[in-house]
Amino acid sequence: MKSLRLIFCALWTAAFVSGCGAYSFTGKSTLSSDVKTFTIRDITLSAPSSYATISQEMTEKLKEYYQRNTKLKLVPQNGDISIEGSIVDYRTDGVAASSGGDKAAMNRLTIVIEVVFTNKFNEEDNFEKDFSFYLDYPQNQTLQEAEKTLVPKILDQLVLNIFGDTVAKW
């Protein structure tokens, strides 16, 4: 009797899981099967002051992430899906007052990228949207010191957010 229950449970589970074939835990299956290629144009820099190589780093991080996490082929132009963008804001702000109250105890580095996404096969997916992310750093650290660790982390998160809204639909 126990083995009969076990077999029934196994069959029920298999039927349930196969019935959920359109669902993906990673969300990677949301693109039409017609989409085979992608283009990522060079990310431009329109923020007044920023990390010297930020636009090139962002462009390369996007290309690498899409290549690693999709089966799409990178093409220099006219991809089935296309991403272009510009870093429109790069700023640091004081976010927490120190015990003396006249100085910030923590500073925040914020990066904003404006993204234009185009899908040739589903125009409803197309958008123009700002993505932003920030990380805090202590007041006793200069921006130049903090940038070395913060900028790569912020760019990684921006890539994840862009991927989530363009391909994975998280």
Automatic annotation (TrEMBL):
<dbReference type="GO" id="GO:0019867">
    <property type="term" value="C:outer membrane"/>
</dbReference>
<dbReference type="GO" id="GO:0043165">
    <property type="term" value="P:Gram-negative-bacterium-type cell outer membrane assembly"/>
</dbReference>
<dbReference type="InterPro" id="IPR007485">
    <property type="entry name" value="LPS_assembly_LptE"/>
</dbReference>
<keyword id="KW-0732">Signal</keyword>
<dbReference type="Pfam" id="PF04390">
    <property type="entry name" value="LptE"/>
</dbReference>
<protein>
    <recommendedName>
        <fullName>Lipopolysaccharide-assembly</fullName>
    </recommendedName>
</protein>
<feature type="signal peptide">
    <location>
        <begin position="1"/>
        <end position="21"/>
    </location>
</feature>
